[in-house]
Amino acid sequence: MPPAGEDSAVEVRTGRFRLTARLSLTDSDRAVAVLASGGRSTLADRYLARVLHQAGFGTMVTDLLAADEVGCPHDAFDVPLLAGRLRGAATWLHGRTGLPYAYVAADTAAAAAVEAAAPGLFAIVSRGGRPDLASPAALAAVRVPTLVVVGSLDTRVLGRSRVAVDWMRCEHRFVLVPGATHVLDGPSALAAVADLAREWLSARLPRTVREERPSPV
């Protein structure tokens, strides 16, 4: 683990794979947002990490695929593979910090987040993701509050995401970002996603964590 207050590279072994991530924690953080996309981390992941860190969350920005795996479409859509790596990273994080964590996932990593439930998980945010690629059984088994954010112009995925949400039995919310496409990476769309994610996670921290968090100065 890096010293508190530092943004450091970490390496996590998940099976035979060494997952790399950027971890940022302070002594006052009471929960961690684990950010993931369908392969390597993106500028959007790093922007959201900064926003959430400013809101009092630790952050872990993950690379679920190695550099030489990114060019293989099969790996990017291998949901069990991505879920196993994401779960491994979250289990490593929770085991070393004891902090609750949430997944903030895009693209195929959103399906992986649905299938990567593990002790300590308290919420999921799917941003322009593909939760529909998770199995119906996995969607119905989700027990944590789940926010699904989709661009209003993403007509190909919008309907599929609605069907996926209909399988869920947990607290959930489906939000359209007006004028946004699938990637949700324009400045206004990304700012909207950041606000939604911050509000969703802040309001759904475990009760004991909310009671322990210091009031903002």
TrEMBL record:
InterPro entries: AB_hydrolase_fold
Protein name as it appears in the record: Hydrolase
Organism: Streptomyces longwoodensis
